[in-house]
Write the structure tokens for this entry.
Amino acid sequence: MDLNMANDTENKGFFEKLKAGIARTRKAFVKNIDEVLLGKRVIDQNLFEELEETLIMADVGPAFTYELIEKMKDQVKRKELGDAELLKKVLQDTIAETLRKSEAPLQIPQNGLFTIMVVGVNGTGKTTTIGKLAHNLKNNGMSVMLAAADTFRAAAIEQLEIWSKRVDVPLIKQKTGADPSAIVFDAILAAKSKGANVVIIDTAGRLHTKVNLMEELKKMKRIMGRELPGAPHETLLVLDATTGQNAVVQAKMFHDEIGVSGLILTKLDGTAKGGVIIGIARELNIPIRYIGIGEGLDDLKNFKSEEFVNALFEQDST
Ligand SMILES: Nc1nc2c(ncn2[C@@H]2O[C@H](COP(=O)(O)OP(=O)(O)OP(=O)(O)O)[C@@H](O)[C@H]2O)c(=O)[nH]1
Ligand SMILES: [Mg+2]
């Protein structure tokens, strides 16, 4: 089912919010690009160098930057581009095409139990995102359950409990230090017996070592698959946009280790590094499911590439 049932007014409201949220990225990116391109009469090596530097600074990543510049040079050589301002159109179209490939909203079947494991390094926004996602799914008529499998940090369970109360969905938990796989086991059992549609599992972002963390996540996946064929149905990796290129590195690492089926990019509000979404789309073959643009319940939204590109290139009203 389409999980985005927002009506037109809500969509408009969200678009304005998205625009406001990514204002700093727009300033750091589109405005700098404009400075490089607009009003230039000749397209020369100098211009390409300036453009390349601006793109790299905007966190879109080396692969995207290289390909784009090569494409532009090629078009200039073939005399398809004579005007620097036309380069902006090529840039915008290339971004749109890159982001489009990463657009694939999460589809949750109406029947049966769907399990979502949420992973990511500490502080990226896992627990907060789970609260927002539970709210979103509940509003779409699903019965949702949360599982507090981050048992490493004392405050982690409490934090998820606050969200579960706020959203009014049940929470499966044990004491700090308990085996996360035991919680996942309990949660699947409880969800089956209550006929819940979705279980969302919070996991630790940090253990004593990185190896420990990956081993623990793998074990949780194994236990889930044993208790419920196909589980986890979705492994969502939460990435923090403010970390720029680090987010790409983290995604590669998690994907290599445990396999990731979807991405969520948080904290797009208030960062100038939002261009990283383009690097993520270009360098990873993993759908971007949602984006986070704030700390509130309604600040998580399905990733829609066209909406994002429009918000990015929209002229700033200020
Ligand atoms: N501005 C903004 N802040 C966010 C967003 N998502 C999460 N945060 C904030 O980021 C901080 C960390 O969020 P958590 O949800 O605790 O992150 P976590 O990944 O669960 O962290 P650990 O449990 O330590 O691994 C909190 O202060 C959140 O309110 C977002 O989209 N925008
Ligand atoms: Mg957490």
Q: What stands out?
A: The chain has two domains: 8-100, 114-304.
